[in-house]
Predict the structure.
Amino acid sequence: MKFSSYLKFLACLVAIGSVAVAGVNWIIDPFYLFEAPRISGLNAAKTGFFQHLRLMKPLVLEAKRNAFDTIILGSSRAEAGLDPEHPAWGPSKVYNLSIPAPNMYELLRYYEFANEVQNLRTVVLALDFSQFDSESQTVTNYEVDHLLQSIHASSDHYRASNLVTTLFSSDALSASMRTVISQHNPKVEHTPLGFGIHAWRRVEAARIGQRAVFIDNDKQYISNHWARNGSTANSFGGSQSKPMAYFRQLVEESRMNGTQLIVVLSPSHAREWSSIWAAGLWPQVEQWKRDLVTILAEDAARHPGKDPSVLWDFSGYNSITTEAVPQGGDTNTQMRWYWEASHYKKEVGDMILEKIFDYHNPKQQVPADFGIKLTLENIDEHLQAMREQQLIWHLQHQQDLQEIMGFVKVAQKERRLRKDKKV
């Protein structure tokens, strides 16, 4: 074979291979970038998407500019609880931009990114108390900035180039293969609108029982957050802390951009709030809520005649968050509202949306005590009522309380031992 013929043959092979790679990546669409049809058993569960949520969700917004006017922003609680396709949204085009364990800086930067590539009208910001821990970071601020800057493209030509590169990339091909292989046993699925379906939580609850799942979650949060070290109380630093400053900046920027901001305090189970209480952080929880209310009230006062940003509190002790946890060893009983103390089910998220948007669901009535709009006028009364509800729950759930207090003592003892070893 002549050398020129060989080169032509080789070029044909490369071209055929490239087209094949692009075809596979487009059909499987492992990252929700190409809007390929979802086919059950082939590409419906995007497992690679879940493994890189911090990267993939902004990539979707970048690839689909001006496709959405509303985002949901929060942690994995909102990611798997607040459905962007619930009818309460009305005609809004909603994307769930929530990511696992974000801090307030991440939430601020993800809002800024989304506002640059979408025409945002509404943001539902789902807040967790742990996001205001000044010393807890899943990623650094530099890493957040670097990631989002690398995604953001300044021109249509560059964005198209990124999509083409992804279409022909070997990394995307590997993700496509993993997607196909994992179709029949996906741990987590995501809808094209960023909503997480955490199938593994159901499997785990059935395998070891829901109380065991609660206990594992309680120990993790107590060790990693509530009783992490001797200065944990100081890391939730109040109105002058960096997380609160980032929240204030998000409020100011949403006002400047004409974005309606709806803030939601996530409804963790009563066991989590009592874990925080047992770790001695309840005064910090109350100050956290006062600071949020104050910042929103100050913003409203600076803009008379404009619609104020609102704060809905679904946290604490109410008819939803106090759902009874099955006894140990019971692997048959499944809770109606919760996977474990941290993560509520979609049914709870539906009630949150129905409450904040005043949506009437003929199949379900939201309990009157689930969700209250906080203001400067009612915050003191609300906090006092929650203390009373907390006391009642503690008196009526001594087993849960003693179990939680035991976990806190163990975490504090382990912390002292680690400190002694360092000395």
In short: The CA atoms of residues 210 and 326 lie 6 Å apart.
